[in-house]
Amino acid sequence: MAGFIAYPDPIFRQKAVPRPPDESLRQVGQRLLAAASEVKAYGLAAAHIGVCEPVIVMTFSSDPEKRDYQILYNPRVTMVSGEAVAAPEGSVSLPGLEAEINRHPVAEVEYDDETGGRHTDTLQDFVARVAQHEIDQVNGIFFLDKLSRLKRDRLLKRHGIRR
């Protein structure tokens, strides 16, 4: 698999439009699955491979050492609960940079499978964090957007990245 799109590419600001899973969307899902497997990512959104589509792949395992990937089409967070907790997050599109991001420990997520069947799962802790991170990306929100402008700019400057 070729490299990932690098931040701050404009694709990371684009919001994907939900649509029924078809062959082209399933192909994006398969590309994401292959890319995630290759780099052992916890999750990936289509923007990481240069496509603005409503598709993510993520692990549903609460063990950070294991990967049991599922492809989610048209994912959305329908509910979050619990007090937000800060934990480090990063991106394959910004290697070597991590930031403490606040996320809720419980997230209810709706998504389509490859046939268009709708599913709802209640995710917790690490898995909820991965889902929120990747679904934000589908909605044009890069994880660094969760930081104050000052914190984000300092972090990017320290890593030699211009926005």
Automatic annotation (TrEMBL):
- Return one GO MF term: peptide deformylase activity
Annotated active site: 134
Task: Tell me which InterPro entries the record gives.
Answer: Peptide_deformylase, Peptide_deformylase_sf
Listed HAMAP family: Pep_deformylase
Query: What family is reported?
Result: Belongs to the polypeptide deformylase family.
Q: What is this protein called?
A: Peptide deformylase-like
